[in-house]
Amino acid sequence: MTSQELEDEAAPASGADEIDSRDDFRRALVAAIEAAAQQVGATQLWLCDPDFSNWPLGQPEVVESLARWARSHRRLTLLAADYRVLAQSAPRWHAWRRQWSHIVHCLQVHEEVAASLPTLLFAPGLRTVRLHDRERHRGRVLHAPLELTHCGEWLDALSQRAEESLPVTTLGL
């Protein structure tokens, strides 16, 4: 799925909850992570954003939900163009990540892909939280199976054009 196809899907659809503000976006992310933590079959999460600057990953409730979700053979994949903001703004998330580094994969997309990187959380089979307008925090929460399938295929394609990044620990002299 191309970036344009995802943009075309940004129009309201049945089975979609609208996101109209930064608070709506944060609430939708927290709710999606909590839903994944409660869902037995939610074995994979994808988080995608150019830099995760507007994500509540450092909030205690998010870290707690991720910890509950991670307990049963899970995999979390982050796709970003730049991890500097996340590295500085979410110390709780980084502490959680150290404990769960065997299931957390942080991928940095290649430069030619960075401009088309969406802002979304994808829980296969469960839901997608996606912003189609980052400046005004406009987007929607998708629940329709076909939309979820397209999103998963597109993220998989993006991940193939990315490399491991954001090491758990840094070596120093």
Description:
Residues 1-14 have low confidence and may be disordered. The chain has helices spanning 3-8, 22-38, 60-70, 84-89, 91-99, 111-114, 145-159, and strands spanning 16-19, 44-48, 75-80, 104-109, 119-123, 127-133, 138-142, 162-164. It has 7 helices and 8 strands, in the order H-E-H-E-H-E-H-H-E-H-E-E-E-H-E. Helix 2 (22-38) packs parallel to helix 3. The longest helix has 17 residues, at 22-38. The chain has a single domain, classed as Endonuclease, Chain A. Strand 2, helix 3 and strand 3 form a beta-alpha-beta unit. It has 173 residues and is an alpha+beta fold. An 8-stranded mixed beta sheet has the order 1-7-6-5-2-3-4-8, sandwiched between helices.
Which regions have little confidence, pLDDT < 50, spanning 5+ residues? 1-14
CATH architecture: 2-Layer Sandwich
CATH class value: Alpha Beta
Return Rg in Å: 15 Å
What structural class should be given to the helix and strand makeup? alpha+beta
N-C termini distance: 44 Å
User: What strand line-up does the widest sheet have?
Assistant: 1-7-6-5-2-3-4-8
The total count of helices amounts to: 7
